[in-house]
Predict the 3D structure of the following.
Amino acid sequence: MTTTDIVNRLRIWAADGSKAERRLAEIILSDIEYASRAPIADLALRAGVSEPTVTRFCRSLGCEGVREFKFKLAQVLAIGGLYLFPEPLVRDERDARVVDAVADGAAAAIQRARDTTDMSTVNAVAEMAVNAGQICVFGSGGVSSLGAVEMQNRLFRLGLSVVAHTDGQMQRMQSAVCDKKSLVFAISASGQATSIIESVRVARQYGARTVAITNPGSDLAKEAEVCLPFVIAPDTQLYKPTAGRYSLLFIIDLIAMTTAEMIGPSVLEGLRRIRISLSGLNMSDPGRPVGD
Amino acid sequence: MTTTDIVNRLRIWAADGSKAERRLAEIILSDIEYASRAPIADLALRAGVSEPTVTRFCRSLGCEGVREFKFKLAQVLAIGGLYLFPEPLVRDERDARVVDAVADGAAAAIQRARDTTDMSTVNAVAEMAVNAGQICVFGSGGVSSLGAVEMQNRLFRLGLSVVAHTDGQMQRMQSAVCDKKSLVFAISASGQATSIIESVRVARQYGARTVAITNPGSDLAKEAEVCLPFVIAPDTQLYKPTAGRYSLLFIIDLIAMTTAEMIGPSVLEGLRRIRISLSGLNMSDPGRPVGD
DNA sequence: AGGCAAAATGTAAAAAAGCAACATAAAATT
DNA sequence: AATTTTATGTTGCTTTTTTACATTTTGCCT
């Protein structure tokens, strides 16, 4: 998969595109809600370009035409929320640099995860999760322990029995009481965390199924039954935020979502209604921004 | 105002509507993906009705026209989950959709945080952090508590004295021992979490400086000295990718990075020590692994 | 049953939106 | 400066949606 999401592509075009493309991208980004509903004539007028330019722009963004472009924008709005940007913030160069650095890093991390994550593996993992009697999530270190807790959080909401351990001793103890019905998620960016490697080995001895979210070449990856690649690019600046967090979050989102879908429509139908009613999607008041 | 989403209304029509409406509703429900993209001529043909009937049908469903109807269908597809798809749909397509949904949502959330976060506020907050004697981070709820821990993680690495509490009682206790040198970060998606609001109030009474990362209109926002906008509807994240997570992470990244830059080179020394201490522990002491 | 109003649906033509083909302008390259 | 390439605009055509009106169906009353 080499595709980027539209928002990202729009941003790229807003920076790198030609004159007309830049103006268009800016107009669209500044008000996605509007852009997703307006006819291209309006859009063209606002951006000061001609209508076919809009069509061409959509195509160069990877869409089949304007319709598909709007379709995707609508979906972005649905998931990301309805946001209006009345007055774009003006920043000085220094501030913009920081914001861009972080945002670009985050976007790149998600992109990377998106490109390297194999959905058939995710599906297999989700199936394990659905059939597991008990799910244990092990993670340690800044990013990975955060991921472990997050995974617990997500799966717990689906009614699954799940526990996360970020402490090495607890991980060992937990793995010692695993059985054939157990599923172990082992999260480690390095894939070298000893307590996690050992916990996986022990859990496996007791018949548990094991999934590693880690560096594919690492010891942990070898130890586990299944591996979902999670690689953190080494950061040049030490104090710079580790964009890898976003990758991990993304992978966890994928697993949680796939698992949710697999659990079954009956449960989800209710949840979907709740969400939609809360999100105000059904409201005929499009100007109102809603959160996500 | 309608209280049900389109899919529900479609189901109602499929059961109660007139002949043509029933057929239409069935066709649409049987393949929402198709219906959301196909021209009404196709739809009309499939359902064996005339084109204006489709338009009228959309109107009676509360939409302004066919376009808006399709717009909403697109959003339902993004939000509502894959079980809305007809069975014969290929696996790959479903997979691609999950990935797209999560990635697009994440990207949109980051994009939005990027555009709405005011760097002058972040700079001010960073300066508070640098000058604080003690930093407390309070958060509760899935996303916010995660954010609190993450904030602790990040600021700790910069050599700052920081503690995170996700427990209401601990938050109160902590706030009771705040003083003029204290800085409190209060993270809450809703901005209504009572323990956090009260903790902020108490801490402020003792002279602490307070920063809320929350819904700008909320009680918490009013209580705190500074507010960084972070909006997320509380209960919508039942099973869907909560794009808001990415926003929060992004905001935290900005704060941490800005703070780091403000502290300057001395930060690097602290980080270097952490890294050394971790690499030493990594292999030799399995009880305290690192996985960063 | 037959007839009549009301609702539902269909037909055909107009309006709107999107697009393709070609023309022109800008830019890069030589 | 000439030439090629690329980007953008103009015009008119196609598809899609909608309006206005005609026709059919349905339910109801005598």
